[in-house]
UniProtKB/TrEMBL annotation:
Coiled coil: none annotated. It comes from Mycena citricolor. Residues 19-56 are annotated as: Disordered. SUPFAM superfamilies: Nucleotide-diphospho-sugar transferases. InterPro entries: Glycosyltransf_32 (IPR051981), GlycoTrfase_DXD_sugar-bd_CS (IPR007577), Nucleotide-diphossugar_trans (IPR029044). PANTHER family: ALPHA1,4-GALACTOSYLTRANSFERASE 1-RELATED, LACTOSYLCERAMIDE 4-ALPHA-GALACTOSYLTRANSFERASE ALPHA- 1,4-GALACTOSYLTRANSFERASE. It holds the Pfam family Gly_transf_sug. Belongs to the glycosyltransferase 32 family. Gene3D superfamilies: 3.90.550.20. One of its GO terms (molecular function) is hexosyltransferase activity. GO terms for biological process: glycosphingolipid biosynthetic process. This is Glycosyltransferase family 32 protein. The chain crosses the membrane at residues 67-89. Keywords: Membrane, Transmembrane, Transmembrane helix.
Length: 457
């Protein structure tokens, strides 16, 4: 018999110790002598909450299951769509962000010429103004097209041919075409890796009419490599220390505080030095991180800089890794004027390189002066283009995935398509990757380095 509590007068109800078997699970059978009360809300009791699912939890689990089912369908569909898109279309995407303030201050204004092309002013120098601006030329080094398809750029380089040379009398060292390069002695010692640039010069250029001058910011010290070439090529090789204030005498930069600019990458001072050397001596500038592949002679009737890459970047279209200007060229005079009247170059920037050449070009055409020429990118920097048309990576073996892509894939042996392209262009720019080694039996070693050694034996 159930035990009951008789406290109904105080508002309590007698409850059974257990529910009758015939009664519902959550409800007591009504008693005829007592009113029926609703059962207390057990969900509010802690023990009850532990056993009954929370509605938010159920909804969360349901949402997760639904999301998972949707993703199982959507993700494969998206992947399939992307793959089909890549199969039928070529994506061309490039993002670059430029400060509007910077472009409005540094790019959009066109500098005014300072009068360096005035006939009376040019007469005070050795520069031939009529020939420099309007003289006849045998070669055409500007294609007028971007040449991004296949081997177009390399084939165009092959149309720039050298003239047969006749035997000539001895040419003194100072009267030869002067080739300038620069190595900062405080950055690294001159070693075997840097020697390859020297070898490429002596193996490809016409030495009876050429001289390479290796400039430095200080004494390169006792060096067996350099001593060897000084002994072997006394009239075709020289070492000199740069004196920037002396080189700047008579230019708009004379006495400028900008002359002491220097950075850890040797970009700012390197960009300044190449212009001052070409102004003082004339000739050709070649970056030390380059390998020459053929005689530069057919280019020398022009004054030029180089295209930065095949993408025609709107704010960075020009490069000075390979450039040629004559002694006291008014082009350089105007460049010095722009440098002297502009903001100081930012450390580690190309403000005195690519940006300066762009400003100068725009100033020239605005002043009705025929501008200097621009070599197509592949003439000296065939790596700076699309994956399908660029030169293979010089620092990766031939069988790597990236070197199996593009127009040279499977044709990197002697007399192959790559070998033909290298015989057409004038150099390979390596972009300061001094810490990387050339792979053993890679295309650089087979098609360039070994041939340098063979020619110099």
């Amino acid at each position: 018999m159930p035990l009951n509590l008789s406290l109904s007068r105080d508002g309590y109800e007698r409850l059974p110790m257990y529910a009758p078997v015939t009664s519902p699970r959550h409800r007591r059978s009504p008693s005829p002598s007592h009113p029926v009360h609703d059962r207390p809300n057990l969900a509010s009791h802690p023990s009850a909450r532990n056993h009954e699912p929370h509605p938010h939890t159920s909804r969360f689990l349901l949402d997760r299951r639904t999301l998972f089912r949707v993703l199982k369908v959507v993700l494969p569909l998206m992947l399939f769509t992307v793959l089909v898109g890549f199969w039928f279309y070529e994506p061309h995407v490039e993002f670059a962000f430029y400060s509007r303030t910077w472009t409005q201050r540094q790019i959009l204004p066109v500098p005014k010429l300072s009068g360096c092309f005035d006939a009376q002013r040019v007469k005070q120098t050795t520069y031939d103004l009529a020939d420099g601006l309007h003289g006849p030329r045998r070669t055409n080094i500007q294609a007028g097209m971007a040449m991004r398809l296949g081997s177009d750029c390399y084939d165009f380089a092959g149309t720039v041919q050298s003239m047969p040379r006749n035997f000539s009398s001895y040419v003194s060292a100072d009267a030869r075409t002067q080739y300038h390069t620069y190595w900062r002695n405080d950055l690294a010692a001159f070693g075997p890796r840097q020697e390859w640039m020297l070898k490429s010069f002596f193996a490809t250029q016409h030495l009876p009419e050429s001289r390479l001058i290796l400039w430095s910011n200080g004494d390169l010290g006792p060096n067996d490599i350099l001593s060897h070439y000084l002994r072997r090529y006394p009239d075709s090789f020289a070492l000199r220390v740069v004196d920037i204030p002396s080189l700047a005498q008579g230019t708009p930069l004379q006495g400028s505080p900008y002359l002491v600019q220097k950075d850890k990458k040797a970009w700012v001072d390197g960009d300044l030095i190449r212009l001052l050397l070409l102004w003082t001596y004339g000739g050709v500038w070649v970056d030390m991180d380059s390998l020459l592949t053929r005689d530069l002679e057919p280019l020398l009737e022009h004054e030029f800089v180089t295209q930065w890459d095949c993408y025609d970047k709107i704010y960075q279209p020009l490069n000075g890794a390979l450039m040629r200007f004559k002694k006291h060229s008014p082009y350089l005079c105007e460049a010095f004027h722009i440098m002297a009247t502009s903001e100081a170059p930012r450390p580690g920037s190309t403000d005195w390189g690519s940006l300066l050449y762009l400003k100068l070009w725009r100033a020239l055409v605005a002043g009705d002066i025929p501008p200097f020429k621009v070599l197509p990118y592949c003439f000296s920097d065939g790596r700076s283009c699309r994956l399908d048309t660029r030169l293979p990576d010089p620092f990766s073996s031939d069988d790597t995935r990236q070197n199996k892509m593009g127009i040279f894939a499977g044709s990197m042996d002697q007399n192959g398509k790559l070998d033909k392209a290298l015989s057409h262009v004038f150099g390979v720019h390596l972009h300061n990757q001094w810490d990387k080694a050339y792979p053993k039996d890679g295309w650089v070693e087979r098609l360039l380095l070994r041939r340098y050694d063979d020619r110099l034996r």
